[in-house]
Structure formats: structure tokens, C-alpha cells
Amino acid sequence: MILWKTMISGGTLGIGRNMTKRICVLLIFALTALTQPLLLAAAEIILSSDDQFRFATETMNGKDYLRAVAEFERFLYFFPEDEEVPKARLLIGVCYLKAGRFESARKALQKAHAAYSGTLVAGKALFWIGESYFRQKVPEEAERYFAMVIEDYPEPELKNAALYRLGWSRMQSSRWQEASETFNRVEAQSPLFDSSRHLAIKSLEGETLPYKNPTTAGVMAAMLPGLGHVYCERYRDGLVAFLLNGLFIWAAIEAFDENHDVLGGILLFVEAGWYAGNIYSAVNCAHKHNRHIKNEYLRMLPDTLNLNIFVTRKRDYGLALKIDF
Amino acid sequence: MKRQTLLFLCLLATCTFIEPFFSTRATRGDESLQSSPEDKKSGSNFGTWLVGFYRETVSKVDGDRCPSEPSCSEYSLQAFRKHGFLIGWVMTVDRLIHEGKEETKVSPLVHSGGKRKIYDPVENNDFWWYPGDRKKHD
Question: pTM for the whole thing?
């Protein structure tokens, strides 16, 4: 009002120029007053459930898995009634799994399984629990979960994926024949069919890999320290085992010959450890050799199951399978 | 003298064989073993004492020369704690025999303390008879 009065009573001298200035000031005030609510509105964040879910998914796609878990948790907290909640629960488990936190992944997936028992979501949770054991190289547990999926969830894609992974788990545990039979059970309409047929043949070749027999290694080491290592193609280790055992036996014999019976006894006692250790070491070398041979063979086989479950923006809960050529 | 020696050997053997029954280690399939790493640390025996003595005296002078990770004494300590004196001893001997370059064929290399070392923990050497607690830990 005061401003208005001042402007009206602008005086006679230079009224045009002063008036223009005052109008400008007035306009600036008016503009400021009008735009302020807009600016305030711009500072607010209105986040929809879709936005939050998309952000969490993008964080996961960017391989920042633990941050993605936090974002999915935020989604669950703010939008507990959203239809994407089951998917978010599963994705928390998947993110933990991809981050290598297998135990946390299983806890999250068990929760999802319990919350949606009897639904397809529960089936997928079971599948991912099995996958966590498979990646952790605990095939016995993985097999148990994949078998449960196959038995309880007849949905074709999920069942075929579980069959495929069950075959892989059986190869991991060196049950080559059973693995081949499992791969042969994958249905013809599945995108995994061709790969399964190929693996059914290749898995049988697993039985003919150049393994070392641990019993033979142990017996040879017992007959002559170091010989078991030679059988396992570890010549330097064999020499070490032979020399250590030889030296202790020789020292013990010398001690007894010189009538140092207590010293001889101690040396013999220590030698017993070297001798037992030499046998254990030969058997251990054979097992490690076999594990290495098997892992290398499995590594060369193509695993075409690329699981992108639930990471698409589609509302359905399909099992996305991608075949890599 | 022979009798004394025999007596000494018998005593040593007896101590060795009865030790596992008195040690605090858990046996295979025992849930307490799989519960937490802290439980395992409580298992102490003659072997852990020997390794402790070695680390306090010899190792301090001798320095770190082990090409593997964990170091041989640490490995030995873990083996004694996990499997008791008898098996721990045998596994320690196994480690001393196989710690050379030939192990790189079957075990991965890792960087530790600015050096490339062979990653060879206890689980790498008992996996074929002691499936143990793989599934419990991340």
C-alpha cells in the first residue's frame, strides 16, 4: 500500500522515468510472489511405487546389489500393498545371491517362500535357493531344492529350468549317468532343449576323465613314502616326502644303534606323523587332482541358462530365459 | 632301558589317541561345529600349544617364508582346532609336503601382503571327507 501510494504520488519531475522504474520493481515483486509456490513445489519429491521399483531395479542392473537391496526394502516399507511386493521380495534374495551373500539370500528367499506358499512365487523362491547352493558348490542341497521345484511346480518353464539345473548339480557331484538322464527329461518345447540334449551326451564323458585313484595313491605312499605323489604327477612333493621320511627313519635307526633309545623313540614317534601325513597327502593330492579335472571339464561345458527372472518391467511373473550362442 | 622306551612310546601313543575325546572340538555332523567360527576357536590342545610356541619363538626370528595363504602355522592352528591333535598333525604334515609350486596346478593364487600366494585353507584339504559347514557360511 505504501509502495502504491508512493508510486501514485510520484511527483511531477521526471515522472515518466520514475514511474517506469517503480513499475519494474513492482513487476519483480509480483513475479517473485507468483513463482514462489512453483519453486516450492519443485523441491518436493512425489515418488510413486513404480518409480521406486524402477530405481531399485536399475540399481540392481547396475550391479550395485547391496544398495539395490536397500532400495527394494524401501519399496516394501512405503508400498506394502503394491502388486510388485512379491517380486520385490524375490529380488532382495536375488540381489543378495548376486552379491555372494548366500546365507542372507536364502533367508530372504525362505521368507518369500513362506509368505506366498503354494504360488508360483514360492516355486521361484525355491528355485533360487537351489541356485544359491549350486553357485556355492553344495550340489546335494541344490539337488534337494530343484527336486522340490520339479515335483511341486508343474509350470513348464520353471520345471524345465529346475531340471536343467538339477542335471548340472548332478554333474557337480560326479553323478554323470544320473545327470545325463536328468538332461534328457527337459521337454522339447523348452528353449533349453537343444542344450540339454548336448549336455546329456557330454555328461557321460565325465566318467572317462583322467582321474587318479585316491586308494591307489594311498597304498603307493604307504609302500614307499613319496610314491603316491609321483602317481599324482607331483614329483617334487614326492621327493620331499621321501627325503623327510627317509631322514627320520635313518635318524631313529641310528639313535637305537647308539643306544639312545629315548631319542630313537621320540624320532620314531615324529616319523609316525610324517609317514601318516605322507599317506594323507598322497590321497589328498589325488582328490584335488580329480576335483580340478572335473571343474575344468564343467567349465568348458556351455551353461545356457541365463536367468533374468523378475528383472523385466513386465507385470507378469514369467521366467525369462536367454540362450547365449 | 628298552622297557623305559616302550613305556614312553606307549604313553605318547595313549595321550595322542585319547586326546580327541577330551579336546573341545566338535565331531563331524555336530551342530555346534557348524554354529559359528568362534566355537572352533575355543578348541585348544597340545597341537595348538606347539604352534603357539613356534610362532612366539621360531617364527619371529625366521620370518614369513610360507608361500601359501593362510600361512603354514595359521593353517596348522586351524587344523588342530577343527579336527583335534591327531588329524591336525597329519594335515600339518600334508601341508608342509605340498606347499610347493606344484600346488598351483590345483589351487588358485591370491594377493596377500603384497605377494602372490597359493590359496590353500583347511577346507581345501579336507573337502573329500569333511563336507562340513560350506552351506552355512557366505
Answer: 0.73
DSSP character for A154?
A: -
Q: Which amino acid is at A239?
A: L
pLDDT tens digits along B25-71 = 433 333 333 434 444 445 678 888 888 888 888 877 777 788 999 99
- CB B94 to CB A137 under 8 A? no
Q: Does domain A50-210 have CATH number 1.20.1250.20?
A: no
Cα–Cα dist A70/A76, whole Å: 10
What are the structural domain ranges in chain A? 50-210, 214-300
Interface test with A, best of B34, B50, B106 (most A CBs within 10 A): B106
CA–CA gap between residue A291 and residue A210 (Å, rounded): 11
CB atoms A287 and B127 under 8 Å: yes
Q: What is the amino acid identity at position A146?
A: F
Tell me the pLDDT tens digit for each residue of B59-95.
Answer: 777 777 889 999 999 999 999 999 999 999 999 999 9
User: What is the predicted ipTM?
Assistant: 0.73
